Amino acid sequence: MNIVTIILVVLVAFLAGMEGILDEFQFHQPLVACTLIGLVTGHLEAGVVLGGSLQMIALGWANIGAAVAPDAALASVASAIILVLGLEGKTGFTKGDISTAIAIAVPLAVAGLVLTMVVRTLAVPVVHIMDSAAEEGDYKKVELWHILAVVMQGLRIAIPAGALLFIPADVVQGALAAMPAWLTDGMAIGGGMVVAVGYAMVINMMATKEVWPFFAIGFVVAAITEITLIGLGVLGVALALIYLNLSKMGGTSGGGGGHGDPLDSILNDY
Amino acid sequence: MAEKIELTKKDRLSVAWRSTFIQGSWNYERMQNGGWCFAMIPAIKKLYKSKEDRSAALKRHLEFFNTHPYIASPILGVTLALEEDRANGAPVDDVAIQGVKVGMMGPLAGVGDPVFWFTVRPMLGALGASLAMGGSVLGPIIFFVAWNVIRWAFMWYTQEFGYRAGSKITEDLSGGLLQDVTKGASILGMFVLAALVQRWVSINFQPIVSRVQLDQGAYIEWDKIPMTGEGLQKAFEQVNSGLALSPIKVTSLQNNLDELIPGLVPLLLTLLCMWLLKKKVSPIVIILGLFVVGIVGHVIGLL
């Protein structure tokens, strides 16, 4: 790997690290981070496929309040780097390469979690410095320390990524090749199931008695493979609009208080 | 009478851009306070000229703050309006500003999480990922562009809405719109999630349930087909007319399950995960556990 590639990889890692806390541009999402690492190292397609597969697992990972989800940033960046190191000197990639990288990504997501918490704790003294700057009316200093805090989050991923790059490619390849087929195949199978965890997290957050029927409809309709995801999205929006409008028609409570079951009262009207 | 100080569109754009970094100095003590203050600085600079006023304003905006990062935008808009009034001499005190911030951040965060994290991102993510898994670079591009267009449009327009509505917005909060948005998002989210469970959670049970010798005439008799163009045509015609490819019909456990309800096992697995999560089992433990199940299941020939 030449120096330009190394700089670009570290830069991508830095962006992913910043985004891991900011959650704005989504550079930390596997779909984006793995693709970018693939792009700058010349393994674009492998990066895209890894990104897509990891994204499926990470769909439900979200930071809510003070809780921190498994760290998508470190998982994506580090597993993508390991993937491309393993592909160094080879052309193309196999399904096995991808599933091995995914299996590595999961423990990394946990490790990243610890790093995130460390940095969030380190940010406490930072805001105290901002306090004293505010006392002096020194807004430049407030800005500076805020930016330093973001940089700290970026380094959280950039440093481990940089360190990974200095492991020689043949060591990584040797380690990956030493993994027996039953292990990598088994991990691939596990990867197919792990997707369910992310969905379960999201469903747990959203599910109420009222919206479960829509889950049932979605499940049945999805078996019709001719309908694309976009088609399903359109159906979902339409159902939501119909439901909201109907529940207003039956609403005698006024102001949309939402007590009781609106559908029930509609049915009673008939 | 002193000239009225107004925040221009440029000032408001600057605040909106800076609010991108609202979580930058996220900390366990006051959470998004640093980022909030950072976002308010262009307005503070414009509105307050004396060192004392600036210091007071900076301190005022370093108080505890935490909400969904995009939902901070309408709150910033309202706060900008209040600060502008205050700078122009209106009796808006610290308590009023703090009250608006705290009063809005809780209920609004309850909208942001289901809408952005649990509906829009999983949907765009799944759309992008399904393209990406086929090796198409369009997947990541669609995800990235669509997300950021939606995000930026939301942040700018809700900040402007908050700025124009000023403190009146708090009255709107109790209105039905927010509830509708939240409920609509959950309906859409549940619908799409069910589809994702059905299509993307993959489990294949390998065990063979039955091997049935088919009747003559129900399968293609390959030894009677000459390896010529004509023969191939005949073979394909037979395939089209529904003849089996081999004389023995192999049915795996998976085939049986799929005939019953396609996607039943993924559904059960998802429900199991939900139950475990409710039992406070860490998602990390479940994820690692599933890898172990995958490896063990593969070794014993079940999966």
Automatic annotation (TrEMBL), chain A:
PROSITE patterns (UniProt xref): PTS_EIIC_TYPE_4
Localization per record: Cell membrane
GO biological process: phosphoenolpyruvate-dependent sugar phosphotransferase system
InterPro entries per record: GatZ_KbaZ_carbometab, PTS_IIC_man
One Pfam family here: EII-Sor
Membrane-topology descriptor: Multi-pass membrane protein
Main location: membrane
Keyword terms, alphabetized: Cell membrane, Membrane, Phosphotransferase system, Sugar transport, Transmembrane, Transmembrane helix, Transport
The keyword Cell membrane is assigned to this record: yes
Gene Ontology annotations for the cellular component aspect, listed alphabetically: plasma membrane
Ranges that cross the membrane: 30-52, 64-86, 98-123, 144-167, 187-207, 214-244
NCBIfam families to which the protein is assigned, alphabetical: PRK15065.1
Protein name per the record: PTS mannose/fructose/sorbose transporter subunit IIC
Organism field: Vagococcus elongatus
Source organism phylogeny: Bacteria, Bacillati, Bacillota, Bacilli, Lactobacillales
Automatic annotation (TrEMBL), chain B:
Transmembrane region(s): 124-147, 260-277, 284-302
Domain of life: Bacteria
GO biological process assignments: phosphoenolpyruvate-dependent sugar phosphotransferase system
Pfam families listed in its UniProt record: EIID-AGA
GO CC term, one of those recorded: plasma membrane
InterPro entries: GatZ_KbaZ_carbometab, PTS_IID_man
Keywords of this entry: Membrane, Transmembrane, Transmembrane helix
NCBIfam families referenced in this protein's UniProt entry, alphabetically: EIID-AGA
Protein's UniProt name: PTS mannose family transporter subunit IID
Protein source organism: Vagococcus elongatus
